[in-house]
Write a structure and sequence with these properties.
globular, mainly alpha, single chain
């Protein structure tokens, strides 16, 4: 179990560092490959978040806070790093089964929503909106028919 925790911490750090620092080639001939690699790292991060959400959430928010501190310069590189970091969480899925995990997932989305209200750059707002769509559409797609049967219908 200890080796799994060490390995998952290593993978989490590697994924977030690569997404945060925008080390993946995003221009030129290899731009398409860079996007594929970024998506693969984001998918690994999403799988890790299913197993160790608290750790991934804390590290993600720390990286975001670090970049937000540099955001006052409003350079294109900082904006691109924030967008890459946000898009790295697009494979994050809300856990519905234990209520504690469900509440933690929505606490994470609340923190992202507060940032959405504060940020001024259009690219960052667009990336946050994409993150919300990617995480909330699967929740909306869950079949809630048993819950709907408990709601009394008004007579015509």
């Amino acid at each position: 179990m200890a080796s799994f925790i060490i390995f998952s911490n290593y993978l989490k750090n590697l994924c977030l560092i690569l997404l945060n620092k925008h080390l993946i080639c995003s221009t030129g001939v290899h731009a398409a490959n860079g996007l594929i690699i970024a998506d693969l790292f984001a998918e690994v991060l999403g799988v890790l978040a299913q197993a160790r959400f608290g750790s991934v959430r804390v590290r993600f928010l720390n990286e975001l806070a670090e970049l937000r501190g540099k955001e006052t310069a409003a350079t294109t590189a900082i904006t691109q790093s924030i967008v890459s970091l946000l898009m790295g969480m697009k494979f994050f899925r809300i856990k519905m089964a234990p209520i504690e995990d469900f509440e933690a997932s929505f606490q994470f989305l609340t923190e992202c929503a507060k940032y959405f209200l504060e940020v001024k750059q259009r690219d960052i707002k667009h990336a946050l909106a994409g993150l919300f769509v990617e995480t909330l559409v699967p929740v909306a797609a869950v079949r809630i028919l048993p819950a709907l049967s408990l709601i009394p219908l008004a007579p015509n």
